[in-house]
Amino acid sequence: METKDLIKKVRKIEIKTRRLSDHIFSGEYHTSFKGRGMTFSEVRQYQFGDDIRAIDWNVTARYNEPYVKVFEEERELTMMLMVDISGSESFGTKNQLKSEIVTEIAATMAFSATQNNDKIGLILFSDQIELYIPPKKGKSHVLRIIRELIEFQPKSKKTDLSQALKFLSGTQKKKAIVFVISDFMMEDDYEKTLKIAGKKHDLTGIRVYDIREEKMPNIGIVEMEDAETGQIMVVDTSAKQVRLSYEKNYRDKINYFSTLFSKCGAGTVSTRVDESYVTKLLGYFKSRA
Fold first, then answer.
1. Cα–Cα distance measured from residue 276 to residue 112, given in angstroms and rounded to the nearest whole number
2. Taking the model in full, what pTM does it have?
3. Which of 201, 214, 185 is nearest to 87 (CA)?
4. pLDDT by residue (tens digit) across 152-182?
5. Which CA distances in Å does 229 have to 88, 165, 233?
């Protein structure tokens, strides 16, 4: 992609997602994801209705009138965006590819974190770590993340979430807010690594999918290519057993995703490319508040 086209695309995504984060998500994000705790700010004179447990008795004795301690939320947090950029993310039958929706969601989350002065980091993964951008603050940092999401070309088309979760645990020593954005159509067993990450971090899995992935259409004998392996197969889609087998495999992967994330204390959001991810994310944030 030429630099001029890239800048134009980044700007377009920035305008859309920043508007969402400024007017819709920033407050919900702040409410949903708490800081590390409360830190002492100042003392002030006691006012009617103040909790008497907050009275600072030393200052009260010094001035012969009641004073209370004021605490503020220690807000600064780190958000890690873990984005699947394997071959299956390039699929789409409606107006947008899965990868385009993934980029918009990631950008919206990043701008929401920036509104709250949090750090944002990025892990792009396939069956390996394709790119790691350490957490940092600021608009220019978010724009760099968006640029990478748009133009980065992965070395592999396969997926291995376990490797990505191991990398997360190895690089993020403190608790972070982690969004894993993927279609979760991977073959690997990631239960062990998800459990480890779930104990340490605030995890959410965001599943982006296309309606055409749910069922195989009956269109006769066709050649199909596996987006991640490149393998081409001749499939008789008119065979009922073939279609049922495909649908079962799809349901098994989705059930594994939702059941395992829940078991590990992590949240889940699922949104189709032709649905409003804004509605889905707002509903999720409100359910956490």
1. 17
2. 0.79
3. 185
4. 999 999 999 999 999 999 999 888 999 999 9
5. 10, 22, 11
